[in-house]
Structure formats: C-alpha cells, structure tokens
Write a structure and sequence with these properties.
heterodimer; A: 194 residues; alpha+beta; PH-domain like; seven-stranded antiparallel beta sheet; B: 191 residues; alpha/beta; Rossmann fold; 5 helices; 44% helix
Amino acid sequence: MNRVFFLWTRSNRHFNGNAVLGLCALLFCSSFGLLAQSNATSLNANASFSVRVTHLLGFEDTKSNCNGTLSIQGDALQFQQAGRPGAQVNIASIRDVSVGAEGKQIGGLPMKLGKTAAPYGAGRVVSLFAHKDYDTLTVEYVDSDGGIHGAIFQLNKGQGEPLRNELVARGVSPSPFEGSATKQSVAEAAHENK
Amino acid sequence: MKTSKQNVWTVCVAAIVMIMFASQGQLFGQTAAVKSGETSGSETQWCVKVERVDSANFDLASSFQVAIYENLLEELNKTRQFKQVFRDGDLKATETSNLLVLKTTVVKYTPGSETRRAVTTISGATKLKVRSELLTPDGKVVFERAVNGDVRFFGSNLRATHNLARNIAKALKKSSWSAPEQPSSLDAGQL
C-alpha cells in the first residue's frame, strides 16, 4: 500500500510539475500574442505604408522621372527621394485616385541603340522579350487655392491596387471611370504580352 | 608729305571705326526695341485658365487625361505667351479680368503599344487628336483648332500627351486669333 501511495504521490508531483510548466508556456505564448496584437494596432494607427515608385509627372515640388518612396504618413501622402526633403499632400485634399496598367521597353537608350545596331533584325526579337509591365497610380488633388493638380507614379506590377485601397480606406474616393480605363489598360498590357 | 599721308590714313581708319561703332549701336538699339516690343506688348496681358481634359466618350485612362492637363500647363508656361497660367478650379483666376479659358476635348484616341512599335516599327502608334478651344469668360470662341499628338517610333505611350501639349502651345503661339474686347489698358489683342 505504502509503495502504491509513494508511486501515486511521485507521479502526481511529476504531473503537477508538467502542468505548471504547460501553464507557464501557455501564459507566455498568450502574452506574446497580446503583445503582437497591440503592436499591430499601433502600427495601423500610425499608418506606415510605403512603396518604391518612379514619379512620372505632376507631384508638388518634385522633378519628373525620378525614383523615390511613396508613403502614407499619418494624414499625408509623401514622396521622398533619397537624401532630399519629402514633398507631401494632405490625403483630405486628394479627390480622385486610380490605377492603370502599362507596358514599356526596358534598358533605356543604350538598349535602344544596341537593338538598332543589331544585324538581321535581331533587335526586334530582343524587343519582343525586353519589356516590363507596371502599374500607374494617378492621383488628383486640390491645392490651397482650389487649383486641380494631377500626379502620376509608376509602380511595380501589383503594387498599385494595395496603395489605392489604402488611400480609399482613408476616405479618398476612387475614380468613377477607373473600371473601364483599367480594363482598357489591362487589355493593352495583355496585347503587349502576346 | 609722309606725315600728311599718315594723318589722312589715321583719320580714315578713325572714321571707319566710328561708323562701325555707330552702326553696331544702331543694330543693338533695334534688337533691344524688338525684344522689348515682344515682351512688353499685349501678349503678356492675357491670362489663361486650363480646364481639365474632356475625354468625351472615349475610354481614355485617367493617367492620360492628367498627363495632357499637366503637360499643357507646363508648355503654356514655357511659351510665356500669357501673363499667368491658372489651373482648373483656381480661385485666383476668378479675380482676374483678362481671363481666357482653354478647353480640350478628345476627338480621337488610338491606344498604342511600345513593344509593338519596337518590334514592327510600322504599327503600335499611340494617336491622340483633340479639339482645342480658347474662350472668353462669356463663352465666345476666339481660337479653335484640332491638334494631334502621336508617338510613332520611340518613347512611352504617355509621350503622346507631351507631344500633344507642345503642339497645342505651338498652335496657340503661331495663330493670330482676334482677341475679345479688351480693357482700356490694352492697345492690341493679337497674339
């Protein structure tokens, strides 16, 4: 009997130890989960959505055809070039945002010259494969005098929609004609892929 | 005898130099007058408000409409033909007395493809044709022209909008449209 009791207490003690260990682990994990949740919430509140873009034209105090980062900082849409102060517009002043798709030849002028110089029309064959599809984000906003501005950004394919959705979530109205225009642009891009 | 010859030569050379200086001065004066005439004439007295592009029934992408609008503003500013170029909706434009309104309506649009242009050369051109109208605040049309902007060989599709805006600015500069009734401070109304 004593032997049985001894075995039981020993196993029970062992069981209790495991249970405490498990409980600690559970608490530890849940606290981490809560921590992560609160972090995520604070991130959403501070809003940091940024993406690498090429500014094609139109944004306030920014040169055309320059690379930079387009981000949502609080209640402003900011474009920042490396090592330069960022230009920004208030999201409340944005009255229209739309996404389109375009295709372009890569390589710039050197590639163009190379393709032109290539014999037996080899340049045309290269052109067939040397193209890239990208998204365009068009933003229309109003300045302090009421004047309408338009800015166009070039983004990697697939990045335009999330950015547009982020802006729409913050109260910007999407373009009413966007559906048809996007469809057309997509058709255009599809045509280029053929 | 020798000294008298030298004197004559010296006088001749001096006279030639003086004549040359005088004629040059006159030329300088002339060019300055022409330049001042160009800049201080009635051309700088008018302001223009560029309205947003009306795409009519064409499925013109927003990026194209915005690009035409922005490029037009830039090209018109470059020409210095107007005293001030206002954006659509600008409240300051309503306070200006000598204001003209530039309307742009898309007449024809053929979407192109840069890849097709690069591969085939002869196809894939992006073609834009717009009707450009310059109106007085009371709606009188003082200039109307159909203008093209194409990309046939090199460049992205959006380059068509740049070419179009440049062509509109050129057409406006070259044309001698009759200006509407002017305020008393203006002498002539021809651009």
